[in-house]
Amino acid sequence: MTNPIASNPLKTRGDAQAAVRELVTPLEKHASSGGALVRPGNTGAAFSEVCAAQEGVTRPLWGIVPLLDGNGKFEHLQRYRKGIRHGTNPNHDEYWGDIADFSHHHVEIAPLGFALALQPDEFWDPLSDAEQSQLVEWLNGTNDAELYDCNWLWFRVLANLGLRSVGANHDWVQAERDLERLEQWASDDGWYVDGTPGRVDYYAAWAMHTYGLIYAALTQDAERNAQFRDRAAKFAQDYRYWFADDGSALPYGRSLTYRFAQSSFWGALALADIEALPWSEIRWHWQRNLQWWRERPIFRDDGVLSIGYAYPTLKMSEDYNAPSSPYWALKAFLPLAQSASHPFWQAAPKPPNDLESRIVQETPKLILSRDRGDVFALAAGQNTEYNHKYNKFAYSTAFGFGVGSDVRGLASAGPDNVLALSDGNDYVRTRENVIESNVDDGISYSQWRPWDDVVVESWLVPMIPWHVRIHRLDTKRLVSSSEGGFGINLDGELISQTMEDRKAVVRNSTSTSGLVDLAANRSGDSVQPDPNTDLYHPRTIVPLLSDQHDQGIHWIVTAVFASTNATDERWFEPPRFRRGESITIIAADGEQKVEIDR
């Protein structure tokens, strides 16, 4: 593996400028003769090969444009200009194609609009009149097409903003309609839902907010920009809880191959000159996250960003991830548009010192806790086709999560942090078909239906370093269950496994993961998930508690422990359980007590 930023400390503005050049230069060897197509790999996506090859031209612009706007040097600029000329020329062999209804081209018009608005001297003025006309006509194709009703509407807004900024033909009436529709997905707490019914995830940060802040930085739309700024200030108070002390961000939701796009919100605050938190803290979140990613093996042998998360793997990807898709991460470099005198660059990075140990975030339906610098999240679940990316019971910056590669067999089903149910065949079902979910009173609750005649209610109670899961299983069929804890790396030294009645724990040289049955006598076990399904490690092991359940109502109560300490003594002090008219859970220190009405 070639890591182009391995020796870059990522501490100064100059380091960040160099990082943009280092990250995008490996793409040059994969560019076509006409410059409009970049093919760094042979894997495919749901859209055409030409659209996939276009991404290698447009997505790096998210970093190149602010680099240039901040007077940074970039030696390959002529190739990008050539690519834009040829890609938008219908008479050229490398033409990108017309922008049709729902086509992937809509995603790639956003960085082009951004380039026109922020750096017209480099991306508009050098074009001839004919080349300008063909670019304008191509971008305007979005105004005659249908788009997915979600964050995609921002792409059309940014394209029209870029055209308007250079005085070219555009449709601002359409842009206004899109802005009004986007406003309907804003929540009072600063979050966004991405579409209807929509998901709540990183798209709130690296799409909805980031584009809104770009808009605020580039327009004089006073009333709307005030909303974007105020909403971002609220969101920052929640978003900072998604980052661990080592700079890692909570792996949760889809599109995680965009990696350090996680930092784009912090960078967008700098671009829009919004001190939503002290500049020193904004700078810390931004810088530490980039540094954490620098230390991961996320590159291919030729230095190109791979598809994957903490290492290359296609198993966690979505159908819209093409070989150049990870370069969406370049949005993290928006602060480069600000001069070295800006307070973002002048601030000495300082971690937050006022974070609460636990926080409830109602819109994403998460309860986040911190334990010795790591972030743990209990998720109430969302109705989505990306089941394991939203509907695990728990997520963590320290342990990541596994993505199921198949529904046949426990090892293929992503067994960590789920209650996996089977009715006697090889097919395994986990939390899906979520009927209801909330995080009221600091407890995560969901009702879900794995089959029409099986209903599960799940309560998740944070008791750091533990959390407790209470499941009410109402089944009209015989089912077996296997409940998983956090997966740990199997490539290191596995110190021990303890598998016995009511208990399962696995340890390697750095971590402990375990489960304790508080209410029944389930048997302890472990499973090795399919390789390359975990976001953090190619090979993992997951502790399990398993049982059989006849028809009727069953209560399953589990204490779950995970620590980045192989000898953490807190493992020997699980929460206590008391059964009566209500289920009572008492923390090991006796200070926290929770009752669930039976």
Layout of secondary structure:
Blueprint: H1 13-24, H2 49-58, H3 61-69, H4 77-87, H5 105-118, H6 120-123, H7 129-140, H8 152-165, H9 172-183, H10 203-218, H11 222-239, H12 264-271, H13 279-294, H14 343-346, E1 358-361, E2 366-371, E3 374-379, H15 387-390, E4 394-396, E5 419-422, E6 434-438, E7 444-451, E8 454-463, E9 466-475, E10 479-484, E11 488-489, E12 494-500, E13 503-508, E14 512-517, E15 523-527, E16 540-549, E17 552-563, E18 576-579, E19 582-586, E20 593-597
Antiparallel strand pairs: 1-2, 2-3, 3-4, 5-10, 6-7, 7-8, 8-9, 9-17, 10-16, 11-16, 12-13, 13-14, 14-17, 15-16, 18-19, 19-20
In short:
This protein is α+β, with helices and mostly antiparallel strands and 598 residues long. It folds into 2 domains: 13-346, Glycosyltransferase, CATH 1.50.10; 358-597, Beta-galactosidase, Chain A, domain 5. The chain has 15 helices and 20 strands.
Account of the protein in words:
The protein has about 600 residues and is an alpha+beta fold. It folds into two domains: about 15-345, Glycosyltransferase (Alpha/alpha barrel), CATH 1.50.10.10; about 360-595, Beta-galactosidase, Chain A, domain 5 (Distorted Sandwich). Helix content is about 25%, strand content about 20%. The chain contains 15 helices and 20 strands. The strands form four sheets. Strands 6-7-8-9-17-14-13-12 form an eight-stranded antiparallel beta sheet, with no helix packed on it. Strands 5, 10, 11, 15 and 16 form a five-stranded antiparallel beta sheet that branches. It has a four-stranded antiparallel beta sheet with strand order 1-2-3-4, with no helix packed on it. A hairpin with a 6-residue loop joins β19 (about 580-585) and β20 (about 595). α3 (about 60-70) runs parallel beside α5 and α10 (about 205-220) packs parallel to α12. The radius of gyration is 25 Å and the shape is elongated. The chain starts with 12 loop residues before the first helix and ends with a strand. The mean pLDDT is about 95. It holds the Pfam family DUF2264_C. It comes from Halocatena marina. InterPro entries: DUF2264_C, DUF2264_N, UCP014753.
